[in-house]
Amino acid sequence: MLIGELSRRTGVSARSLRYYEAQGLLEARRGTNGYRAYDEDAVASVRKIRALLRAGLSTEVIRQVLPCARGEQAGFDWCAELRAILDGELADLDEQIEALRRSRGALVGLLATR
């Protein structure tokens, strides 16, 4: 399917699809006319990429995780390294949340002295 069809079927802009391809998240063949052509499984791949982006993962992490996301469902085949990668990402998020809580507390303290 061409990029316009993939965009229509997934609700993702052609610009985003080209970005995913540039980041190594999505593969397209080039026809003799130079147009991108995607396989049918690209629809499921794009949906999984979007879900992983909504979870806050970077495209670099998604590139590592995506091979473990097989099939039409949103679930994952638990590759050996997948659990460790996602656990690491969760730990990083927890650290960021705690840092934000400390910053918020400090700001509340400053405002209280006003």
TrEMBL record:
SMART domains: HTH_MERR
HTH merR-type domain span: 1-68
Pfam families registered for this protein in UniProt: MerR_1
Keywords linked to the UniProt accession: DNA-binding
InterPro entries (UniProt xref): DNA-bd_dom_put_sf, MerR-type_HTH_dom, MerR_fam
Keyword DNA-binding: yes
Keyword DNA-binding: yes
Annotated protein name in UniProt: Transcriptional regulator, MerR family
